[in-house]
Amino acid sequence: MAILGSMAAPRSPLSRLFTVLLAGVLAGLVLAVAALPGNLLLGLTARSALGSYAALPASLKTPATPQRSYLYANDGKTLITTFYDVNRTDVPLSEIAPVMRQAIVAAEDRRFYDHGGADLRGLARALVANVKGGGTEQGGSTLTMQYVRNVLKTDPTRTAEERAAATDPTVGRKIQEIRYASALDKSLGKDEILDRYLNIAYFGSGAYGIAAASQRYFGKPPAQLTLAESALLAGLVQSPDAYSPISGDKDEALARRSYVLDSMVATNAITAAQAAQAKAEPLALRPTAQPNGCTAVSQGHDDWGFFCDYLRQWWLTQPAFGATVAEREQALRSGGYTVVTSLDPKIQATAQQQATKVYGYDNKRALPIAAVQPGTGRVLAMAVNRHYSLADNPGGQANYPNTVNPLISGGASVDGYQAGSTFKLFTMLAALESGRTLSTGFDAPAKLPTRYAAEGPGSCDGHWCPANANPDWMDGYRMMWDGFGRSVNTYFVWLAEQVGQDKVVEMAQRLGITFRADSDANFAKNNAVDWGSFTLGVAATTPLDLANAYATVAAEGTYCTPVPVVSVTGADGTKVPVGQPSCKRVLDADVARAATDAARCPVGQQSAFGQCNGGTATGVNDILDGRPVAGKTGSSEENSTETFVGFTPQVAVAGIAANPDDPADSVGSAVQSKVIDAVARVIATAVKGQPEKAFVAPSRELAGDARRPVERPAVPERRQEPTQDPRSALQRWLDRRG
């Protein structure tokens, strides 16, 4: 890039004034150096520096140049997307083709290895030529001077005014640039300066640095650049926008390529024959655009955008990346981080396939699915039958097929969805923790009058009166095993009353259930003791929260905060201390084992004490081929949602079928079997190839006396009971939205 103006651009009045002023200041120097021998000139250059390395701005010693951050899947190889304000990535000189190094020197600074950072002879020649005029201006800047200017004008630690001053057409700025360049040349090796220059120079079409340019124009790393490709790129830096063969003039780009090749011959870098051969090569571009942000994930994988957005939201909460949200956002876009996420491409692919198998992209109903690793909290997959996109939707379609709302993780305007009887787990855990055993029995009636006042179809004499939908299969003497396996509403409402509803609510919160709806949060805070229907899953939740809660049980009582990364590495190769599992024990291990033992009943497996006698999702056992698995189904009132969450010691997966825009739109009971099948197949993919791990049986103390005073023969499987809530589904939806 010519300091005194583009060689192809007309001279502005300001540029002419700057040239004349600088010519006046250095006129004596120009006349003197014209007759000086080379060695004496070099000495004069060094003595004229008037600066030292110690006095240099910190950014010139250790450049804080912006670089893009990379997000990879958990294999560390599959690129999800990149984030950047400036598209650039540093590479060492050893990873840049030698012909590229030779080309940039020939194009921009033939005497690079001879001068002391500021080439007074070249500057004098340019000044004389520019004062005389003649249609084009000549640049007098060395590579080192250009490097100084590029650092100062892009330094993110400087103010906007300071960055703008780095290109001011003033004599003072030019002299300061010469001083800085001379100080750098005395302290750094030529190869170090060349490396820094190649990593910061702008090559047009949004590409900063040789790594970005090589990928942008030719789709390859800079180590693989050919002679013709190197000459083309080297020719761009003088006037990147005008010469870019992508967005500028291809003929001008080829003309500049020929100029660079001739210069390489003049510097003895190549022979005339090699130059002629390279000139004859056609312009073989393979332009590639680097994705930027979550809406620009890899082609064909826009479902990854929901995970990407979850990671970005997590990033903005991490103090390691800055004191404020704005600083953390800027760090992601300019810090040059390498982020290995926890996303497993195989699990994600199965989850997305299953979600779209149940509902297509253009269906108003959705099946968000989340997978979590027990014992670490790492989020392995986040899928839903939506495109993560800002593209417009057809008229009347609020969130489909395109949306960027967090349908899987919740937040923003997404409170979540009712998960029905999956919340019975929290009642069972609270009961076990209180000293009750798995064999705690109750003769569950078809309807159970409670002390909670209510009106409407779910009431008995003015009190809330939950019911079992299939009396022949659900009613009668039940213990935790078959009460959970058959999803007996009246058993669990009774059990919650014995334990205390507030204890059940606290248990859910302890395992990570977040109340995003204001009405739910207020009920939990101010009236949990009277929240009789809580055990039936009337509070809104998300697949991610639910999967992680069940993962806590799978990890024998160890809760881990959900985390979307495996590692984060800074641009300098230093590991950032974030993303490590943040876990704590929230349940006694024996309590968690007991709950797991009962949770094997719904999925068609047998407890360690032989007490399972029917389940609502027995097909899961067949899909997992008998591998140890546990889980629970859930149907909300009027089948407005259908849920299944399953887990093994290695993975927990939850899916909730719902209409994200209209909770009064019931998905219907028919979809339950599809949700169960979808979640089970995601689990199967997650554990494929992993060693089979058995659940640890609970103690006999927590099992209790499993003898039944009343025995009822098992009958063919029936679906689980829809939950009841004194509030209507529509009213709850309105409550959550104020």
From TrEMBL:
Domain Penicillin-binding protein transpeptidase span(s) in chain numbering: 370-672
Glycosyl transferase family domain residues: 79-264
Record's compositionally biased regions (Basic and acidic residues): 702-724
Disordered, as annotated region: 697-738
Cellular component GO terms, alphabetical: outer membrane-bounded periplasmic space
Keywords noted in UniProt: Carboxypeptidase, Cell shape, Cell wall biogenesis/degradation, Glycosyltransferase, Hydrolase, Multifunctional enzyme, Peptidoglycan synthesis, Protease, Transferase
Keyword Glycosyltransferase among record annotations: yes
Listed GO MF terms: penicillin binding; peptidoglycan glycosyltransferase activity; serine-type D-Ala-D-Ala carboxypeptidase activity
InterPro entries: Beta-lactam/transpept-like, Glyco_trans_51, Glycosyltr_51/Transpeptidase, Lysozyme-like_dom_sf, PBP_transglycosylase, PCN-bd_Tpept
Gene3D superfamilies, alphabetized: Biosynthetic peptidoglycan transglycosylase-like, DD-peptidase/beta-lactamase superfamily
GO biological process, one term: peptidoglycan biosynthetic process
Catalytic activity entry: [GlcNAc-(1->4)-Mur2Ac(oyl-L-Ala-gamma-D-Glu-L-Lys-D-Ala-D-Ala)](n)-di-trans,octa-cis-undecaprenyl diphosphate + beta-D-GlcNAc-(1->4)-Mur2Ac(oyl-L-Ala-gamma-D-Glu-L-Lys-D-Ala-D-Ala)-di-trans,octa-cis-undecaprenyl diphosphate = [GlcNAc-(1->4)-Mur2Ac(oyl-L-Ala-gamma-D-Glu-L-Lys-D-Ala-D-Ala)](n+1)-di-trans,octa-cis-undecaprenyl diphosphate + di-trans,octa-cis-undecaprenyl diphosphate + H(+); Preferential cleavage: (Ac)2-L-Lys-D-Ala-|-D-Ala. Also transpeptidation of peptidyl-alanyl moieties that are N-acyl substituents of D-alanine
Record family assignment: In the C-terminal section; belongs to the transpeptidase family. In the N-terminal section; belongs to the glycosyltransferase 51 family.
Protein name: Glycosyl transferase
